[in-house]
C-alpha cells in the first residue's frame, strides 16, 4: 500500500502543474486583451487599426473665389433706320428710303461661297398670290410686285438681312436689292419689290435670295410665278431661319 501511494504523488503533481500553467496563460491572455482594448496601438497588438487620413475641410461657399468667365456676346444684327440710307457698291450708290426699293445699275453679285455663319434660311411658305389692294388700296390694279418678311428660329423678325430680286419681267431685266427694315406695311422685318404698274404672267423667271452683310447667300433661290390677274398681282414670300 505504501508503494502505490508513493507512485500517485508524482502523477498528481504533474497535473497540478499543468493546471497552474493553463490558469496563468489564461490570465496573461486576459490581461493582453484588456491592454489592447484600452490601447489598440500597443506594440504587441497583431492587428493594429489603420490610421485614416485627416478630413479636408472646405471653406464656406462665400469665401471661394470664382474665376471670371467670359460671356459670349450675342450675335449682333444690323438694324437699319427707317430714314434714308445709302448702300455703297462698286460703281454706284443704291438709295433705300423707308422700304422703297431702287434698282441698281451695277449691283454687287452675291458670292457663290457656301454660308458658314449664324444664319441659314428657307422659304417659310410657297409663294402666295393675293390682291395688292389689301396693302395698297389706292393703287387698285395699277401695281404689281413681291413682298414678305424674314424670321429667326424663335419666329422673331430679323432686321438688316439683304434681299435680292433677280430675273426678268415683261422683257425687262430685274436686279434689285433691299434690306429687311424694322417696320413695313407687311410687318416687322418686311421687304417689298415693285415690278411695274401692269400685272403680267410669268413662270419661273424671277427669284428671291437672302444674303448677309458680306454678300454671302444665306438661302437658296426661291423662284415664283406672276399673274396678270388683278386678284394675284402681289406675291408674298416669307423666310424662316432653320439653323
Word description of this protein:
The model is unreliable at 61-107 and 110-117 (pLDDT under 50). The protein has two domains: 2-62, no CATH class; 85-241, Immunoglobulin-like. The radius of gyration is 47 Å and the shape is rod-shaped. It is 15% helix and 27% strand. By secondary structure, the protein is an alpha+beta fold. It starts with a helix and ends with a strand. Strand 6 (162-169) and strand 7 (172-179) form a beta hairpin. The chain is built from one helix and twelve strands. The strands form three sheets. Strands 3, 4, 5, 8, 11 and 12 form a six-stranded mixed beta sheet that branches. A four-stranded antiparallel beta sheet has the order 7-6-9-10, with no helix packed on it. A two-stranded antiparallel ribbon has the order 1-2. The protein has one helix spanning 2-38; strands at 85-88, 93-96, 121-123, 128-130, 144-151, 162-169, 172-179, 190-196, 202-211, 222-226, 234-236, 239-241.
